[in-house]
Amino acid sequence: MTTSDNDGEKSEKTVEEACESTEESEKAALAEYVSNLEIRLKQKAELRAQNLNCVRPPENHFSKLESGLKKNTTFVKKLKTFSASQIDTLLKDFSLLNLTKYISEVASAIAEAKLKMSDIAAAIKLCSALHGTYTEFAPNLFENWQKILTFKATDKITNSSKLRVDIRFYAELVAVGIFANKTGLPLLGNVLTVLINMDKDDHNNIPILMSFCKHCGEDYASLMPKKIRDTSEKYNIPVPRNVFLPAEKQSTVRTLLKDYFGSLTKHLLAERAQLQGLHAANQRTLHTRGELSQERKDLLEQHQATYDKLLAGAQSFAEVLGEELGEAGEPPTLTLTVIETQGTVTIGGNEEFNMQAGTDPWQDEDTRTFYTSLPDLKVFMPHYQLKETVKSKPETLTEEMLDEDLKEDELSDSEEPPVVNEVETEEVQPANVSNKVLFGVARTRLDLLPFYSRFAAILYPVLPDVCVDLCQMLKQDFKYHVRKKDQINIESKTVSALDSRYVTQIENAFYYVCPPEAPAQPKEEEPPMHQFIRKILHEDLQKSNEEKILRLMRKLNWDDPDISAIAIQHLAGGWRVRASARRALARLTAELAAWQENVAPAIVDNILEEIRVTMEDPHPRYNQRRIATVRYLGELYNYKLLDSRDVFTVLYSFITFGVTNDHTVVSPLDPPDNVFRIRLVCALLETCGAYFNSGSSKKRLDYFLTFFQHYYWFKNADPYWTEENKFPIYVNYIYQECLTTLRPKLNMYTSWQKCKDALEDLRQILYPDLGEEGFDNDLEDPNEDNSANDGHDGLDTIIETDDETDNPQLPDESSDDEPTTENTGNDDNE
């Protein structure tokens, strides 16, 4: 036997030994996996049987345990910060406590606890002990899991780490029998379905689903590592599986996960192609411009990071599912090579552009022929040596050079290929074609460039030096123009000279996107004293510092007209302060009026003027200002700064100023759709109407409420309001609440006609001699003095002849107590 035969036998034995060793290691790994899996399945099966068939202690057992609030509450707090290291302490405390009254808090604390993956086994052990002791534990725990794991596909996952642990925890609770399959599986299936359906485009939920597959895939989808599955199939060794879930349901879960994996691979391929395209575009830009912008660099880095993250997730997901990534797992091609051949340009590894088929540069067949079909000059050359022609002396060419200018003109005027061909044939013979002729083409004759290029291409086979020199001259001239800074680009100026309408459109678009910076308007500097008054009244004033601010206001120089006017202006601005400080401002004004006699009349005049001005302009932008001003007026009446006559004048102006009392005539001051005056009346009556409960003020209010109901039903009965466009219901609520608060036994009318009948009855009682027409006209301004009319055709001003004995209680406000100088009933200021 030769030496070579011995070496061959040794190598064969070595291969066989290596194969046997590989086979033994694979079987050993499979046996170890199966052994560990059998242990885990056995433990889960025993725990599941224990939880499904648990025997709970009798009722008298709990009476022996601790039921105190302090210890039970401490136990619940420990559950909220649960960790595996606390399990022994918690089980010991659990055995000593009676948690019957706290089982809902215990379930909530366990469900909301921020656990780690290493804490799940200990948490399952604790939940099994609770489930085996308390019947209500499992239902309460399931209700809490429903709140946590119920969300929609449109919801955004804010804490994916906790959701990953929660899903595994809940799946383990179902697997060990704390929740029955019929109860727990639908919620788990809904969570997985929503997570997959909401993430088929972005695939942000890979960590959550991968964690479920890794820890619960054996129980719910019969998943195993690909290496173990291949080894099991290779050696025909069965692998046990958990049978608590039927095989068809496991197949459904496995199909759902594989569908998600399929969409993930498609996304990975798309991201890979996008990354390759972006890289190729950057390489082309770098090749042509020499640098990349920072934006393009950042964009490439962003896409690269996204692709790396997606690839890592896909690889891990494929390993857990036991699937192959295939083409999606191949690395992207990020190199750029430029290969030029005849008719084809290849850029990058897989990016090929065929100039004849893919992106044809020719517009038609004639253009293709012009650039590709070139005549051969050798056919037209005489029978003498080319070298002698090229090296001939200048003296032998003098006759031909005499006609050079003529031929240059002929070439410049040539616009057809045949003429160009004839010129070349004649020019090759002297072989002294000047490159300056081709290089010095007129800049306005762009139409000649294709013909000059064809002329140079025809000459190149026999006179290559001519084309080489021409290219060199063009490159040098290009570099010169690039480096030259003060160029006069006639073409650019011509293009920029657009029609005036286009210039206007471009300027409008530009200034719309980038408006010119308007010069800042100089802000008038407010004097320090004015700023001080505004700050203490509008910002600092509140119930606690009212006395302090009163002392500051009294210290002002009221003899100075400027300071006095500013102070009165701010004191009259009830709409400038907070609603909670409105009563404090009125109380401050009343106390200040005792020291400055001219303050109260000036403030009241300003407020009445403000109300009148805003009524003349019924724009909705003044609505909040009107409400605040009217309420402030009522607060001033409560502190006896104006008479009840002024209040009723304002009330009547609300229902008469600009009111036509005729639906056919629309008033611009009080249009049909404007019902805000009803709110103004109610606001004023809610603020100070409680004081009109006796004496002449009570009678005046009763008469006014009749007129107010007439105005309300006049607005309500307007044809503007239809079934489709109903009268505002909130106005009806405000109206009824106001009237029932002031007069609980008031006879409220239900139609406009009844209101008109009530007004007629009131006229017969008060003014029997006044005609109906005169009474209607008087409604337009019931406070107008008509005593000068001989015919006595209108209502005179009501003159109070008796004392009023009003003594109401001021309506409470959350921010103020009752005023110290309230209107006590004897309306002395009237």
TrEMBL record:
Residues 773-784, 813-830 have a biased composition (Acidic residues). One of its GO terms (biological process) is nuclear-transcribed mRNA catabolic process, nonsense-mediated decay. Gene3D superfamilies: 1.25.40.180. Residues 7-16 have a biased composition (Basic and acidic residues). GO terms for molecular function: RNA binding. It comes from the Eukaryota. Residues 1-22, 773-830 are annotated as: Disordered. SUPFAM superfamilies: ARM repeat. Residues 69-279, 531-745 form the MIF4G domain. It comes from Operophtera brumata. InterPro entries: ARM-type_fold, MIF4G-like_typ-3, Nmd2/UPF2. Pfam families: MIF4G (PF02854). One of its GO terms (cellular component) is exon-exon junction complex. This is Putative UPF2 regulator of nonsense transcripts-like protein.
